Amino acid sequence: MYYCCGITEKGVMPHNEDAMLIGRAVIDKGTSEQRLSGPFIAAVSDGVSGEAAGEVASKMCLEQVRSIEDLQRSKLKTSLLEIHHRLAEYSLKHKDSTNMQTTLCGIAVSEGGEVISFNVGDSRLYRYRGGRIRQISRDQSLVQLLYEEGSITQEERRTHVHRNIIFPAFGNVKTDPKIDVETIPGGMQFGDVLLLCSDGLSDYVSAIDMQEVLEMPKSLPKRLSLLVKRALEHGGQDNITVIAVIYQGEDPEE
Question: DSSP letters of the chain?
Answer without folding.
Answer: -EEEEEEEE-TTSSS--EEEEETTEEESSEEEEEEE-SSEEEEEEEBPTTSTTHHHHHHHHHHHHTT----SHHHHHHHHHHHHHHHHHHHHH-GGGTT--B-EEEEEE-TT--EEEEEESS-EEEEEETTEEEE-S---BHHHHHHHTTSS-HHHHHH-TTTT-BS--BT-SSS----EEEE-TT---TT-EEEEE-HHHHTTS-HHHHHHHHTSSS-HHHHHHHHHHHHHHTT--S-EEEEEEEE--S-TT-
